[in-house]
Amino acid sequence: MSCAKRQTLSPAFNGLNMENSAESARYSTVYNYAKLFPNYTQISIGIFSDTVVEYYGVIRYKDTIYSIDNKDEVFEIGSITKVFNGTILAKYVEEQKISLSSNISELLPVKINGDPAISILQLANHSSGIERNPPDIKSEWPTRPYPKNIYSDSMLLNYFSNNLKLKTAPGAKWSYSNIGSQLLGYLLCKIEGYDYETMLQKEIFQKYGMKNTTTNKLKVINKLVNGLDKGGNPCNRWPWKTGIQCGGACYSNVTDMIKFAMASCDTADPQFKLSQTVTFKIDDADSVFQNSTAEVGLEWIILNHKSGEKWIWHNGANIGYYSHLLINPYKKCGVVMLSNIDSSNPDRRRTQEMIEELLVSASEQSVVP
After folding, report:
1. Is 60 within the bounds of a domain?
2. Which domain range does residue 290 map to?
């Protein structure tokens, strides 16, 4: 699904301003992990510790990495969108509008193929057994012109009614499912009669002042950073309007995402406390960080870090974009990273090491016991 073959790159030269000693160590970390990405790569980072926020932006241009103020530039955030679903689900559970134990067959207007007993909780912690993507989403869909790329509600219901495929029995194993998250978003929208954009705006974005976060590309098109393929060529952005929308259709910037990340540290808030509560264990073989074992809450991945602390994390991977949200709620600090690194770039996983290193630094800086 990438747009071109990957080119062999030499490490970029370091053109960052290192005069400020407080920034020097973090810029050095970013440079070390960013130097192998192609020209025109942008990485936008926000780091908060308690109530102090710092922003770091870099761009590779003509084989040199420079600092850039891109904290307000917009990127696709991919599957970080799912974390909003988990937060809204927790809110609706607290308000007794839905139950985590509810069987989805009781909530859908169609009979589910095979009649499996799948709960709302299993959708939210990816233990439903539902396959990752429905077979009628084709690999060429992201480049199809609108509206031929829409994965509509009727297609969603048809999939569950006629084509549902389970990889494992519900509740048996953690197995990531985009279509499962799409169904969860669909069901959450039905509770208040919202469309997905309206629900996100009312329940998350307006509440936390996230003015440039949306599923509507037209609202942010003038601030949107061009996505790149793994060779560094401009790449068609995902044009889905409702496709696997609830699984990864949001646009945002670091300034907005920091607001949500800081709010997520308020574990006294019932919705954040519930969304970050462990509900399922991820097999060690599936752990995403070398220094952690992993569990899952409501869409959040919960990392049992070697430090003994629990971190919460999600990433996002779209064509032309890659992102991370990593938080230490107990130290009230975190890291947001948005980029136009392609989801198929094999070096993208270096960014996981980068944000882990940055969060360790922020945790050490925090005065919260």
Report:
1. no
2. 75-365
